[in-house]
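Hi W., the iron/sulfur cluster complex you wanted:
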Amino acid sequence: MSAKPHLSPTQLEMIAKCPEAYRRRYVEGEKIPPGIAMAIGSGFHVGAETNFRQKIESYVDLTPRQIEEAAVAGYETSIAGGISFTTDEVGQGAANVIGAAKRDLADMAFEHAKKQAPDYQPVMVEQPVKIELPGPRDLLMVIDIFDDQGRVTDFKTARKSKKQADADTSIQLTGYAAAVKALTGEAPAESRLDTVIISPKKISRQVLSTQHGDGDFVALANRINAVNGLIQSGNFPPASPGAWNCSQKWCGFFSTCRFVNSERKSLAERNDQ
Ligand code: SF4
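Structure:
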């Protein structure tokens, strides 16, 4: 008997932005190599995970240099699996882009080690949780970290600061909170979006705090029901024309998408839009 399929917060976020992109990735199974920003995020998470896993028992952080090395190793593994470059990045030269991203990641991992890591005593790290649902798909997620103060946290890297609404409405954080409730019987005391932001001039940390409770879980369940209906229908509409994510930079399917006209594709190839 085949395993029951699942949805994840990542899938729910993708289908909310563009059902057609979801169809190509999860129905057709087309895998597009990650962009350089995603490789940075992967490396950053490896650095944090490496530290927090051992901290559950040791109660002591690894040194900033050790966390940085783990992050860079994770980044290099991600790069070795293949990267999608934008037209602009191809113009800069792949080696230059990879090198600059590696330096940025090292700086961000160092910031994580100095500013973020000391704030957390983890209880669970990269904890997979499956919530069995009555519909055709379960909900599967991996909690970054749940700590001894009852907080669930999503660590991010970014080029600019986030808005409070990004934390309040985060499907990822809502899913993590639902997972904690499923595991412990109680929703987390706090949900956090903890971001290291790098710009050409400075590197900084931004913490956005919120709470997710029963009202959010009902809304998430309604979203899952709607997504199940959409998948069942087989009709996957495209993103809104002009949406920020419907561009060569943010969508790996852009150059082959049947919903983007050929002139826009050619223009994007020339201008890297
Ligand atoms: S190019 Fe636009 S419409 Fe096509 S899959 Fe990507 S986001 Fe969706």
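The chain has a mean pLDDT of 93.

W.
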